[in-house]
Design brief:
Elements lengths: L15 E5 L6 E2 L2 E2 L3 H4 L2 H9 L3 E5 L16 H11 L3 E3 L6 H8 L6 E3 L7 H4 L3 H8 L4 E4 L10 H4 L7 E3 L1 H15 L5 E5 L4 H12 L4 E4 L4 H7 L14 H8 L4 E2 L3 E5 L8 E5 L8 E5 L1 H12 L3 E5 L12 H12 L3 E4 L2 H9 L8 E2 L3 H10 L3 H7 L4
Parallel strand pairs: 1-4, 1-7, 4-6, 5-6, 7-8, 9-10, 9-15, 10-11, 15-16, 16-17
Antiparallel strand pairs: 2-3, 12-13, 12-14
Length: 391
């Protein structure tokens, strides 16, 4: 997929560049728990600053309800961004308005201004034209480096490309290159590993991957609806009865594998009693909360022989230790796989980082939902907007 690149932008010396980044980092008690999304923006920001651009950076953070909320302020992001860039980062008093315009106009080459949380403005998620106008007016040029938000037709994603010369940042460019390559010409065998809570969230991506994958390995709570499709019961596990027919159709392809054993418990706590049972024998009152060791070993064998692996979604409730073994086994197998490996964002990306394996994966995506939608649809609103940029 061809996108306008940073090199395609007009001369940047002395110009202001609006950079839509994805700084939606996890916070606990106001402190950043994982700064990957901040450090991932550095190649773009440094490239722009080296060419004399003044940067107006913007991002959303959490889910404020279209109004300022101190809990979701970008202040900790501004502080951390300044530390990793090794330059002062000024936090704007708002997203748009006279004071913000004045702060942007005062920027010198190499300066960095971070706007307050985009979602403090209701016009962001509503893709309001007047808000997009005000945002675009802060700069001469726009760069989208927010792959994780590019599946949203929000004002900061699709608005500026229609108003000012625009390009993809380094992170966005890399994400699209890798994921598009998976769809166009993957090395064989191509193994998809899909987990997570709801099969309804993954049906479209399973259908899309079945057109390209040699086998799909299913884990997480979504696997239990597949058990119902086989005429089995699932105890008190999370199931979606309305999607049993879809699961039955997918199983009929003979390229979708589901767990043969599971770890079960009555409750999700670190000290709860657990059992390992065949997937066909989950008793009433017990929930399936991880794939079992036989399933984990068989999945690892398939992954080890893969030419390409795409993994999206954990195998169980990996945040709670009794139910982490299946996800850990898959993560270790993906890290050891000699083929090309991609972890598709979200919880699976968090798992490989938590387990210290991220540097052994060829590509860890910063966008879970965006990566899935790109695989499903072959495009994203943010990418389409860049291709149509007034350039």
């Amino acid at each position: 997929m061809e996108l306008p690149r940073l090199e395609d932008l007009p001369a940047l010396d002395g110009r202001r560049v609006l950079v839509r980044a994805d700084f939606n980092v996890p916070l606990r008690d106001g402190a950043i728990e994982d700064d990957l999304r901040i450090t991932s923006a550095l190649p773009t920001l440094q490239w722009l600053r080296e060419r004399g651009a003044a940067i107006v950076a913007c991002s959303h953070l959490g889910r404020p309800k279209g109004a300022p909320d101190p809990k979701y302020s970008m202040r900790p992001v501004a502080q951390r961004l300044g530390e990793v860039l090794d330059v002062p980062v000024q936090l704007a008093p708002a997203v748009v308005g006279a004071d913000v315009s004045a702060a942007a106009a005062a920027l010198a080459p190499g300066d960095v201004l971070l706007l307050e949380n985009l979602r403090f403005e209701p016009g962001e998620t509503a893709n309001d034209a007047s808000f997009a106008d005000a945002l675009s007016a802060l700069a001469d040029v726009y760069v989208n480096d927010a792959f994780g938000a590019s599946h949203r037709a929000h004002a900061s994603i699709v608005g500026p490309p229609a108003r000012v010369p625009s390009a993809a940042g380094r992170l966005l460019e890399r994400e699209v290159f890798v994921l598009s390559g998976l769809l166009a010409d993957p090395r064989r065998p191509f193994v998809g590993v899909l987990g997570g809570a709801k099969v309804s969230d993954k049906l479209a991506v399973i259908d899309a991957l079945l057109e390209r994958c040699d086998v799909i390995l299913v884990g997480g709570a979504m696997a239990f609806t597949f058990l119902l499709a086989q005429g089995l019961t699932a105890g008190d596990s999370l199931v979606e009865p309305d999607f049993v027919d879809d699961c039955r159709r997918l199983l009929a392809t003979d390229r979708v594998r589901i767990p043969v054993d599971v770890v079960i418990a009555r409750e999700i706590t670190s000290d709860t009693a657990t059992r390992i049972v065949p997937a066909s024998a989950i008793p009433r009152g017990w929930k399936g909360l991880d794939v079992g060791p036989e399933t984990a070993a068989s999945y690892a064998d398939v992954i080890s022989a893969a030419g390409t692996v795409l993994w999206n979604g954990p195998m169980g409730v990996f945040e709670v230790e009794p139910f982490a073994a299946g996800t850990r086994s898959v993560a270790e197998a993906v890290a050891a796989c000699p083929g090309f490996t991609v972890v598709g964002g979200g919880d699976s990306a968090a798992a490989v980082r938590q387990m210290g394996l991220a540097d052994r994966v060829d590509h860890v995506s910063t966008g879970g939902g965006a990566s899935l939608e790109l695989i499903e649809q072959g495009d994203l609103p943010g990418l389409e907007a860049l291709r149509k940029s007034r350039g």
